[in-house]
Amino acid sequence: MIALLIRDLKLAFRSGGGFGLGLAFFLLVAVLVPLGVGPQGGTLARIAPGILWIGALLACLLSLDRIFALDFEDGTLEILIPSPLPLEGAVAVKALAHWLTTGLPLAVAAPVLAVLLHLPASGLPWLVASLAIGTPALSMIGAFGAALTVGVKRGGLLLSLLVLPLYVPSLIFGAEVVRRGAEGMAVGTPLAFLAAITLGSAASLPFAAAAALRMSLRQG
Amino acid sequence: MIALLIRDLKLAFRSGGGFGLGLAFFLLVAVLVPLGVGPQGGTLARIAPGILWIGALLACLLSLDRIFALDFEDGTLEILIPSPLPLEGAVAVKALAHWLTTGLPLAVAAPVLAVLLHLPASGLPWLVASLAIGTPALSMIGAFGAALTVGVKRGGLLLSLLVLPLYVPSLIFGAEVVRRGAEGMAVGTPLAFLAAITLGSAASLPFAAAAALRMSLRQG
Amino acid sequence: MSLWEYANPKKFMQTSGAVLPWVAGLAAICLGTGLIWGFFFTPDDYRQGSTVRIIYLHVPAAMMAINAWAMMLVASLIWLIRRHHVSALAARAAAPVGLTFTLIALATGALWGAPMWGTWWEWDPRLTSFLILALFYLGYIALWQAVENPDTAADLTSILCMVGSVFAVLSRYAVNFWNQGLHQGASLSLDQRENISNVFWLPLVISIAGFVALFVTLVLLRTRTEIRARRLSALIARERLA
Amino acid sequence: MMPELGKYAGVVLSSWGLSIGLIAALLALTLWRGRKIKRALAEAEARAAEARR
Amino acid sequence: MLRVIDLACARGGVPVLESVAFTLAPGEALVLRGPNGIGKTTLLRTVAGLQVPLAGRIEAKPDRIAYAAHADGIKATLSVAENLGFWAAVHGQSDIGPAVAAMNLSALVNRPAANLSAGQKRRLGLARLMVTGRPVWVLDEPTVSLDLASVALFGRAVAAHLAGGGSALIATHIDLGIEARVLDLTPFRARPPGQGGIATAFDGGFGDDAAGAFL
Amino acid sequence: MLRVIDLACARGGVPVLESVAFTLAPGEALVLRGPNGIGKTTLLRTVAGLQVPLAGRIEAKPDRIAYAAHADGIKATLSVAENLGFWAAVHGQSDIGPAVAAMNLSALVNRPAANLSAGQKRRLGLARLMVTGRPVWVLDEPTVSLDLASVALFGRAVAAHLAGGGSALIATHIDLGIEARVLDLTPFRARPPGQGGIATAFDGGFGDDAAGAFL
Ligand code: HEM
Ligand SMILES: Nc1ncnc2c1ncn2[C@@H]1O[C@H](COP(=O)(O)OP(=O)(O)OP(=O)(O)O)[C@@H](O)[C@H]1O
Ligand SMILES: Nc1ncnc2c1ncn2[C@@H]1O[C@H](COP(=O)(O)OP(=O)(O)OP(=O)(O)O)[C@@H](O)[C@H]1O
Ligand SMILES: [Mg+2]
Ligand SMILES: [Mg+2]
User: H-type helices in chain E, by residue range?
Assistant: First the structure.
């Protein structure tokens, strides 16, 4: 289990991929939106919570196919399935590795980008909190989607199509937390929902994802 | 040349990928933004031109790695380079195939999504025009980026990072065309710039991309 | 004789072949009566004017859009638990039908919204959740088409259908939480009959029955085609090996 | 005997037109694919029967 | 150790082999032969538990089988030692030394796998098999790309594994130079259902179609 | 037809072979041998123009060479006929019939390439070579995964190609059963620069370091 986590982190760093690039993409979205939308501060501040959450979501999405596709192509999954590691655990560990290299850096970097988008300072702590609490669900849901599309060649876009609707609740509650936080309102309810989604996905989706992986690989 | 175009289109359709899924992603961005930003019609209308162009750009981006990566992995490129086809022509044809399966459907579908974002009706024709004129440049620039990253395993995110800055001028002029069109102002200047970018990239980037491909493959 | 026997392809082909003409006839009669009655022989509503005629398409389509997903969920569970091929194929056959109904509900709603709410599209919870439902249908259909081995495709889409159902309900609550909305609440339940005046009620109920019958007809037809397609690919594969 | 639809005629007619059009398209597609597959299957069955003999 | 009884297996939903039966005792090796496309890969995947059998039974503890095909789970960016170390950890082993020595990889341990030649990569794949510590090896064309010296090396490694009480099931087209029974799969080609072969769910026709039922 | 003069080639910036020299006349075949990792693949890629030589020259028209390695540009979703037809069109040929017949693929023409077994896929890759219409074949381990009958088929195809005035340069570990000169690459292994091998840009030391220069 720990060997798998370490290996996944190592691979993410070595490939020059995972980590830095997710962040970079997040940054690019935060930069492109003012360019596309125009620089009026009022509008930007209003849309900032939503845009930041959407940026985080897309940054997460783009690296999802790394979770299983490479391991599928080079045969690692075929060896992992009959190995002594329980596949459910392996899936959870891989989602964790994805979160550590994508979601966590996003949460840490978000305040800097929030400033670019004129988010009021009172929203910053809630931005970090909502991302820290909400992004694990994104990784876990993403791992489930990646398990569904693992046998499909270059399933990247199909994966996006499957996963994005599943991200809707997290997005709504996450952006709501930030918006309420920025306006100084109480954030308890949406934050609780966000946490519930994360816990629920972490508790149930590894089983669904492991089942999907077994089925994808079993195709004769 | 024509054989290559037909083959690329065939592959895009067969893979259940190319085509429909680029559109689906565009749709998803158009749906998620209001969910994140909140439903106030006024705000949405103001940001609609920028968001639609950013959506088109991201939809384009996600399918870029299909342009060369698959052909690289299965050795097609290694055979194509010493083949009688001029590589510059092959690159241009592949970019064209990408545009036909991504950019063109986006331009056609955009008005429907514009309604979701409350874009004023006067902006719709300009939205279609700007996408039709501007997206070929996105495919061509994308092909260049894909050629640069072709040797990198799972270079998807690196590719995004390289290509997005190159997309900035198209984005700015494209969104400006739509914004001015929606407000009933003259759109001549940004439209001319957009066309110039498309023509310029179509005329010069195939050479740069072909050179990049030759170099990527030459690495011993 | 157990009910599961109908899950045998051959038995299903025989039974469905016998049932189809009747269901198709019922669909034609109900749709014909309900829609013609609704369109030609009902008065304008005092508030909504002639737009009230949209209700005969909008409401049945919206109901069937949800019911089709529910049917797919049941069929998926049957496939996962008992592995009856017909059930998986029926789920596959229902998806495009459900998607079409969803699109009809969305389109008629949008057109209705223009005069009533002054906008084509409003981010009202019910509307939004229908849009998300359409996305689920699209993803489900795309997954069926992307996976090559039909049994694997059935497995994966079944899991997607289950997980998707949970998240569809979740997002319904999420959007509700986020915005109170313009759309009217349910007014058609039988005990609340007075909410909608009698003149509109009967043709509406007949249209709904027509849509149900139409759904069954289409799903039967498409399931039969899917079964034949599987038989065809089995034959072709045998030919190749021979 | 067209009912009087008043100022909403455009909206009502286009929603009816669109809905019926979509249903008709789905039905046509279903029947067309059904016929196509049925014909192909009949041919394949005939070939298989031929091969058995 | 491994017992296959009346096994039938399918590829892409089509039965390819039927009535395959053999047993593999400890210390024994069995070589599968047969022309291209007969179904060797399919049979090995089924035995390894990666596919479900169409009929028949496989009697073996799945956690005793180590399967190796062409794609052997080697990560290009990790070094030879890191690759082996990972698989050893997964299987609860800790020492990769013997495997490295047996496959003559000592000079390459710190080299990233991306920089290996085709044959060197293959040797790494075989070394991976050894660190699993599992007794039943199921190998699909293990000697592809290997030169004669490496084939001999591999033969010796198999012999040592057998001597240690393990067993091996190997599909190959070439002569491995080990003592083993040979099973030619040609006689087990699946017959069409009309001639006694296994019928799948869609192998039966639909009587009503001929009768011209509605649609 | 092909003339290689004093060639040195590198892999990943490290010289692997040097002073390789041979000529290939029409109608002639040359088989390259050598242990795993000696540099056969590197040499073939250099000859095919996919890598630049470190030193020496290759005299050949690049548009007369057809190169085939393991990855052979086969698209899984296209059928055998579509795959071959595409490559024929690229090379201005139109008839794929002879290639299909020569590689015994007639029964498989309409099958998607994804559904082929390892050996069948390999035969398709070799058929691709034939539709290029090019005279110099450069082949890297062409018989991997082929059964004995298919190896013989391939041998006959090469013989026919040679008889038609073509030539072939083949790296392989097994016996192909064709008449060909053999070139063992072992003696051409690159020496370290100190012993007369080729030095790359950073192979020289920096004299001033020993003198204790600033930093
Ligand atoms: C795209 C937009 C719309 C969507 C997706 C939509 C969706 C729905 C749904 C899901 C139902 C519930 C059917 C049921 O289960 O009972 C419904 C019912 C209904 N809708 Fe809409 N709707 C939309 C727009 C509109 C508009 C603009 C109006 C009119 C102003 C409208 C009027 C009604 C009415 C009167 C009902 C029946 C309510 C009842 O008796 O339950 N809808 N719609
Ligand atoms: N998806 C599929 N649908 C139908 N038939 C398939 C499919 N995939 C493979 N086949 C066929 O199944 C048969 C068995 O393939 P398999 O890979 O097991 O053969 P093999 O004995 O390993 O051959 P080789 O020696 O060439 O590796 C082949 O004839 C192949 O063409
Ligand atoms: N990126 C790299 N950096 C350094 N050395 C490398 C790199 N890639 C390969 N090598 C080494 O270069 C040598 C030549 O490899 P090559 O693939 O040409 O061998 P080969 O003769 O084809 O072997 P095989 O018979 O195993 O296919 C090998 O020793 C290999 O380890
Ligand atoms: Mg095989
Ligand atoms: Mg080699």
Answer: 40-47, 80-90, 97-102, 118-131, 148-163, 207-210
Ligand 3 binding pocket includes F16 (Cβ within 6 Å)? yes
Does the structure show a pLDDT above 70 at B219? Answer: no
DSSP string, E72-123: ----TTSBHHHHHHHHHHHTT----HHHHHHTT-GGGTTSBGGGS-HHHHHH
- A75-79, B88-92, C86-90: the lowest-pLDDT one: A75-79
- In this structure, are residues F161 and F9 in contact, taking their beta carbons and an 8 Å threshold? no
pLDDT of residue F205: 66
What DSSP element (H or E) covers C118?
A: none
Question: Per-residue b/e over C224-234, b at no fewer than 16 CB within 10 Å?
Answer: bbbbbbbbbbb
> What are F23's strand-pairing partners?
F3
Using left for φ > 0, alpha for ψ between -120 and 50, and beta otherwise, residue E146 falls in: beta
The string of pLDDT tens digits covering residues B152-200 is: 766 667 788 888 889 999 999 999 999 898 888 888 888 999 999 999 9
Decide whether any atom of ligand 3 lies within 6 Å of the F36 Cβ: yes
Sorted by where each begins, the domain ranges of chain F are: 26-52+61-182
- B81/B63 Cα distance (integer angstroms): 23
**Is the minimum CB–CB distance between C142 and chain B shorter than 8 Å?**
yes
Q: Does position F183 have pLDDT exceeding 60, yes or no?
A: yes
- Chain F partners of B4 at a C-beta cutoff of 8 Å? 86, 90
Nearest chain F residue to C236 by CA: give it.
F111
Cβ of E112 less than 6 Å from ligand 3: no
DSSP string, B36-75: HH---HHHHHHHHHHHHHHHHHHHHHHTGGGTTHHHHHTT
Under DSSP, the state recorded for C78 is H
Mean pLDDT, rounded, of chain C: 85
Q: Which residues pair with E171 in a beta bridge?
A: E32, E140
Cα(C142)–Cα(C99) distance, rounded to whole angstroms? 12
Q: Is the pLDDT of residue F81 over 90?
A: yes
Which sequence spans correspond to the domains of chain C?
A: 53-184+214-242
Check the CA dihedral A102-A108-A110-A113 and report its sign: negative
Rounded to 10 degrees, the C-alpha dihedral F113/F114/F118/F120 comes to: -30
Tens place of pLDDT per residue across chain A (220 aa): 788 888 888 888 776 555 677 788 888 888 888 888 877 767 888 888 888 999 899 888 878 878 898 888 888 998 888 888 899 999 999 999 999 988 999 999 999 888 888 888 888 999 999 999 999 999 999 999 999 999 887 677 788 889 989 999 999 899 889 988 888 888 888 899 999 999 999 999 999 999 999 998 876 5
Q: Is the pLDDT of residue E209 over 60?
A: no
| Chain centroid, CA F118 distance in Å | 19
Topology of domain F26-52+61-182, CATH = Rossmann fold (3.40.50)
Which residues of chain E have a CB within 8 Å of the CB of D28?
Answer: none
Calpha distance C165→C136 (Å, rounded): 9
**CA A199, CA F4: separation in Å to the nearest integer?**
66
Instruction: Give the span between the Cα atoms of D23 and C87, in whole angstroms.
Output: 24
Contact criterion met (CB < 8 Å) for E206 and C233 = no
pLDDT of residue A87: 93
Any idea how long chain C is? Answer: 242
Which-ligand-closest: CA of E16?
Answer: 2
Please report the pLDDT score of residue F208 as a whole number: 59
